[in-house]
Amino acid sequence: MKPIPTFSKTEHQLLRELAKKNINTSNSKDIMLLNEELDRGIVLKDNTESNNFIRLNSQVTVEDLSAKRKVTFQIVLPSMANVRENKISILAPLSIAIIGFREEDQIDWELPAGTKTFKVISVKNETNN
User: Fold this and answer.
1) Is the alpha carbon torsion for 33, 43, 88, 60 positive or negative?
2) Tens digit of pLDDT for each residue in 70-105?
3) Residue ranges of domains in the chain, CATH in brackets
C-alpha cells in the first residue's frame, strides 16, 4: 500500500498555487500527479512538531531500489533549481514522487524512464521552520 504524504498547511497552499500556475506547461502530467498527492495527503497545522517528512528545502537521500543507486539532493522552488548544486525543483518528477513522505517509506512512481521504486533513506529539515 502506498504511504500517505504529509504537508504543512502553508506548504500545501504553496504547492497548490505552483500547480495552478504550471498546469499548462510541458509537465502537465506531473502537475496532475502532484494535485492527486495533495488531494490525498494529510495537512498539519504549521506549528506542528513533526519535522520528519519531505518538504520544500529538505535535504533528501533516496535509493532507486531497482538500480541500487542512492542520490542526495535538496528540493527547492523552481527558480532555485541547480543540478550542479544538487538542488532540484519541487515540480521535477522525482520531487513530486517523494514530497510529503518520511524515512523508510517506499514509493512506486511513474517517471519518464518508466516506473521506479524509491526508498527514502534520510530526510533533513531545518529545525527553525
Assistant:
1) negative
2) 999 999 999 999 999 999 999 998 899 899 999 999
3) 6-124 (3.10.50.30)
pTM score: 0.85
Strand order in the sheet with 69-76: 87-89, 69-76, 59-64, 114-124, 106-111
Q: How far apart are CA 104 and CA 94, in angstroms?
A: 16
Predicted confidence (pLDDT) per residue in 2-57, tens digit = 789 999 999 999 999 999 888 776 778 888 989 999 999 999 988 776 678 999 99
What is the 8-class DSSP label of residue 32?
A: H
List the Cα angle 48/56/16 in 5-degree steps: 85
